[in-house]
Amino acid sequence: MAGITHSDIVKAPKVLLHDHLDGGLRPATIVELAAAVGHELPAQDPERLGAWFVAAADSGSLERYLETFAHTVAVMQTVEGLHRVAKECALDLAADGVVYAEIRYAPEQHLERGLTLDEVVDAVHAGFREGCAEAAALGSPIRIGTLLTAMRHAARSQEIAELAVRYRDTGVVGFDIAGAEAGFPPTRHLDAFEYLQRENFHFTIHAGEAFGLPSIWEAIQWCGADRLGHGVRIVDDITTAAPEPPVLGRLAAYVRDKRIPLELCPSSNVQTGAAASIAEHPIKLLHDLRFRVTVNTDNRLMSGTSMTREMTLLAESFGWGWAELQWLTINAMKSAFIPYDERLVLINEVIKPAYAKLLG
Ligand SMILES: O=c1[nH]cnc2c1ncn2[C@H]1C[C@H](O)[C@@H](CO)O1
Ligand SMILES: [Zn+2]
């Protein structure tokens, strides 16, 4: 069924696996927190500041896109700042109809004003707890787990992996590495990934965004990633020569056969140059070939987006309807890092009944 709109999609339950806490602040909150800590911003008016982030991130380069985070990370250096940002994140996602989210951030980036790693994690978790409680009271329940990210150019991945495992029963559901990809291959952090595997813990790796197949291959075959952050460049291993059917190379076939989830982020990919436009985004091909595709926001502030907006763009570009949106949502829920039985409850008791009504 084509023609579904933003106002329809906002009401449908959605699942978000790839969203950065420091990429989703409300512009008005940045302005207030920046005034409190004396951080200078490129614009003072929230509307202009929001537009500045989108324009500055729209550079065609991941490195330049990442520079914009200086202004969000700067206001997330105190318990108050982290707590507020996490709480508002929960409220914003719930208002957008997200029922389950995994939110990531790099604790090592929030130590500039003297917080310890544990204090950072505690502040974020407290903010999420409050935000989720408030959202439930407002009639939009949401569950949130966190992923702790290590920065790939730095050397703290083992420490952050241990931090994640220590908090595994109190809100952290996985681990990730992020930051500039070219020049910083996943195997740089092999010790951390091997440690996590010995601990039976879950992790995703940003791979195949600004760098191609070798990054994806290392993430899966050397590091043992459960999921791929982006992974969009897997299309480099798929040969398309219509009218012949597409031919998958060995790595693409492995990713599809093993049902390795791809955390695709369409708008973010257009901004960093990983895709030319939404209409030309490889998500269509990957969907048609039945890869384990999920749709994500990456950074709602830098892309001026939301889960509803990402899905609306896909519905408009590819004529996708409720069947496709349900497929994406169930793919994401199946790929979450919470226990299997808990995923099933959300699929069977929240997602499927809602889409059954929408499908009519
Ligand atoms: O899409 C991304 N690719 C690589 N790194 C990213 C992306 N989005 C955000 N980051 C970085 C910047 C943040 O400060 C950090 C932790 O959330 O992760
Ligand atoms: Zn990301």
UniProtKB/TrEMBL annotation:
Classification via Gene3D superfamilies: Metal-dependent hydrolases (3.20.20.140)
EC number: 3.5.4.4
Textual note on the cofactor: Binds 1 zinc ion per subunit.
Record keywords, A-Z: Hydrolase, Metal-binding, Nucleotide metabolism, Zinc
Catalytic reaction annotation: adenosine + H2O + H(+) = inosine + NH4(+); 2'-deoxyadenosine + H2O + H(+) = 2'-deoxyinosine + NH4(+)
UniProt entry tagged with the keyword Nucleotidyltransferase: no
GO biological process terms on file: adenosine catabolic process; hypoxanthine salvage; inosine biosynthetic process; nucleotide metabolic process; purine ribonucleoside monophosphate biosynthetic process
Highest rank taxon of the organism: Bacteria
GO CC, any one term: cytosol
Entry annotation: catalytic residues: 209 (proton donor)
Domain Adenosine deaminase: 13-352
Residues that hold substrate according to the record: 20, 22, 179
Family under the similarity heading: Belongs to the metallo-dependent hydrolases superfamily. Adenosine and AMP deaminases family. Adenosine deaminase subfamily.
Function: Catalyzes the hydrolytic deamination of adenosine and 2-deoxyadenosine.
Name of this protein: Adenosine deaminase
Organism, scientific name: Actinoplanes lutulentus
Lineage: Bacteria, Bacillati, Actinomycetota, Actinomycetes, Micromonosporales
